[in-house]
Amino acid sequence: MTDSLPIPLTSPLSRAQRRTLVNLVRRAARAEVMPRFRTLGHADIAAKTTPHDLVTEADRAAESMLARGIQRMFPHALVVGEEAAAEDPGLRKQIAEAELAFILDPLDGTWNFAHGLPLFGIILAVTRFGKPVFGLLYDPVSDDWIFADEETPAHLSRNTGADRPVHTSTGGALGDLSGYIHLYLMPKETQAQVAACLPDFARTLMLRCSCHEYRTLAQGGMDFLLSGVLNPWDHAAGVLICQKAGGVARMLDGRDYDATITEGYILAAPDEASWTALAERFAFLLET
Pseudo-torsion of CA 254, 257, 262, 265, nearest 10°? Predict the structure, then answer.
């Protein structure tokens, strides 16, 4: 394992620090995630809050490996993993006061993973007092990743070492837009109203994987995302990457996104005009 690499708080992660973090994520995927894909037994899968909210041995093992590696590299940082936060909800509250926090989803898309679908990822975000300053969306199946920081545009990187910039779509009229709407994760009392909006768009769906939803959004394959579940391990990296890919991502009420916000809706879009049109269409959510 590498020696401690303290992050300079006045600048983004250095190239060496980014590379070290990416290598840690790739090692965790090779050691703890991919060997368990399509090999899990019933005893290796458990439900958390609902039968659809799953955790597996791969989630726990990958988070443990990632957390250990990050603490060795950044010994004074706060590390908030999804599974650790499920065990200790108070951990999430510490993000607001943390000068340097690493927020992890060690296996995003667990339902897909547990059911043998190759659509899952690892999400890593770095925040300063809740503000995202680095984001990484890693696909263990293809072994590639999209990353961005405060000063670096969003790039797709492959294991060959070649990087290329990614860009959100060109946007357009509502009827031409396709997006991810987390309909069934919204409050029951709003679902019918949101469902009534679906015919207004070219296509809407959800992948059950924030990692790949934000990856597709950042690459222009889909136009927008609307979510009312504000887990920071799902959104902190993706919001920053969407913004650095040329898009607009903020709270539906106009506030800048912050990993400490626990209520409301995130709306991400390819440009300001599309974001405004979408925000007007979904404005009724702010009244409920």
Answer: 50
